[in-house]
Design a protein that fits this description.
single chain, alpha+beta, Nucleoside Triphosphate Pyrophosphohydrolase, four-stranded mixed β-sheet, 10 strands, globular, hydrolase activity
Amino acid sequence: MAHDFKVLSSELLLDAPIVAVRQDKLAMPNDQVAFREVIEHMGAVAVVAVNENNEIAMVNQYRHSVKRRLWEIPAGLLDVQGESEILGAQRELVEEAGLEAAEWSVLTDLVTSPGFCEESARVFLAQGLTAVERPEAFGDEEADMDFAWVDLDEAVAKVLSGEINNSIAVAGILAAKQVLSGNGQAREVSAPFELRPTSIASRRQGPDLKKQ
């Protein structure tokens, strides 16, 4: 019979604007106890936007944690209280790529770092694209973001060569290749996102989860 890893106690160690850190005391097998630090996260959405030439929209953005620019697909936090995943994805596609899409489906859900972080992401496939005005960004990494259309097969090759290494982009690109090649089936946007984190959303008040 599988062990029940019951939380015996929990302490909030850090409550920052974008993430929080808590320490859980767990009941372990053989009557042992252990402490586990967990980075709380709001969850994220990302979009593989594919045009009529089988090219995907990609952005090049500075990521301070690894101190380098990474090629990524448009993505962002689920930082609006109560916002659905599809609305978050549509918002991010406009903000980061200046695009709207007529057709949406779900490619994959993933947990990015389950050893210590509850971050999960839902990756959408967007087709039937239309260019729209992209809002101007001020004061953060998005103000210095580059944009490019990349052939899907070229993007797959860049994943395998290590040139594309953002985990959400890797998962989205490979899943899109399978679906668009007829080797997989995307899901409806109404499919439940059971992995979406709730810790921060349940503790903070107001529409913007980043504010405290």
